[in-house]
Design a protein that fits this description.
CATH topology: Umud Fragment, subunit A
Largest sheet: 8 strands, antiparallel
Strand content: 25-35%
Number of helices: 1
Structural class: mainly beta
Helix content: 10-25%
Shape: globular
EC number: 3.4.21.89
Distance between the termini: 59 Å
Protein name: Signal peptidase I
CATH class: Mainly Beta
CATH architecture: Ribbon
Family: Belongs to the peptidase S26 family.
GO molecular function: serine-type endopeptidase activity; signal peptidase activity
Catalytic activity: Cleavage of hydrophobic, N-terminal signal or leader sequences from secreted and periplasmic proteins
CATH superfamily: Umud Fragment, subunit A
Number of strands: 16
Number of domains: 1
C-alpha cells in the first residue's frame, strides 16, 4: 500500500512540475495562439497556429495567465514597430486579439474612402490579384467568409479585392476589401495617446479594431501594458473544424513567416 501511495505522489509531483514549467515557458517565452476569425486575412487564416513571442515587448501583469503577474506597467519593455502583428489583451473584455500596429504614440490616423491616412498623408496602395477562397464553414466556429462577389453559393469561389499597403518606413503587407462604404471606411482623425497604439486588421471590412470605440464593442487605443507579444511565424495550419482532420492541413503554411 505504501509503495502504491508513493507512486501516486510521484505522479502528482511530476504533473505539478510539468504544469509549473509550462506556465513559466508560456509566461516568459512563447504563448500558443490559434487564429479564430478572418480579421487578419490574407496574412493569417482561420486555423493558423502560432507561438507569440513574449520577449518582444517585455512583460506586464497581463503576461501571466488571468493577468495575475504582481506588478504594474511593463518591465524590460520596448515598443512595437509600425507594421508588427501583435497579440494583446482587449482593454475591457479580457479577450486576446491579434491585429497589426498601424499608429504609434503621437500619430494622427484616419481612414478616408477606405484609404489609410497617417499624419495627413495617404499610404501607398498597389492593386493585386483578388484573394480567393471557398465559400464554406471555416474553423471550429464555422465562420462563413464574406465575399465581394456575393452572393456566392456553398462551395463557390469567394473573392475579395486585395492590395499591397505600404506604411511609412517601407513596411508592406496585403489588405483586403469586401465592399466600399463599410462603416470603417470613413473615420474621424484619431491622435494616438502616449503609451498607446492604434491597431487594425488586414481584412479591413471584417475587423473590429481601433477604428471603433470600446463603447460600441470596438477596441479603441491599446495600452502598452496590454501587449502580450509579437506574432512572427505560423507553425501549423488547418482549414478544417478539427486539427485531427489531416486532409485539411495547409502544409504550404507550415513555418511560414508573418509579414
Amino acid at each position: 500500500m505504501a509503495e502504491s501511495e508513493g507512486g501516486i505522489m510521484e505522479t502528482v509531483k511530476t504533473v505539478v512540475w510539468a504544469l509549473v514549467i509550462a506556465g513559466i515557458f508560456r509566461t516568459l517565452f512563447f504563448q500558443p495562439f490559434w487564429i479564430p476569425s478572418g480579421s487578419m486575412k490574407d496574412t493569417l487564416l482561420i486555423g493558423d497556429f502560432l507561438f507569440v513571442n513574449k520577449m518582444a515587448y517585455g512583460y506586464s501583469r497581463h503576461s501571466c495567465p488571468f493577468s495575475m503577474c504582481p506588478f504594474e506597467g511593463r518591465i524590460f519593455g520596448s515598443d512595437p514597430e509600425r507594421g508588427d502583428v501583435v497579440v494583446f489583451r482587449h482593454p475591457t473584455n479580457g479577450t486576446d486579439f491579434i491585429k497589426r500596429v498601424i499608429g504609434l504614440p503621437g500619430d494622427r490616423v484616419q481612414v478616408i474612402d477606405g484609404v489609410l491616412h497617417l499624419n495627413g498623408e495617404p499610404v501607398r496602395l498597389t492593386p493585386q490579384e483578388p484573394f480567393e477562397e471557398i465559400a464554406e464553414a471555416q474553423g471550429p466556429q464555422g465562420h462563413v467568409p464574406r465575399c465581394s462577389n456575393a452572393p456566392v453559393g456553398a462551395g463557390g469561389i469567394c473573392a475579395k479585392e486585395r492590395a499591397t499597403e505600404e506604411l511609412p518606413g517601407g513596411v508592406t503587407h496585403s489588405i483586403l476589401n469586401i465592399q466600399d462604404g463599410s462603416r470603417g471606411d470613413n473615420t474621424p482623425e484619431f491622435v494616438v495617446p502616449e503609451g498607446h497604439f492604434f491597431v487594425m486588421g488586414d481584412n479591413r471590412d471584417n475587423s473590429i479594431d481601433s477604428r471603433f470605440p470600446q463603447s460600441i464593442g470596438g477596441v479603441g487605443f491599446v495600452p502598452a501594458e496590454n501587449l502580450l507579444g509579437r506574432a512572427d511565424r505560423v507553425i501549423f495550419s488547418s482549414a478544417g473544424q478539427r486539427m485531427i482532420y489531416f486532409w485539411t492541413w495547409r502544409s504550404d503554411r507550415f513555418f511560414r513567416a508573418i509579414d
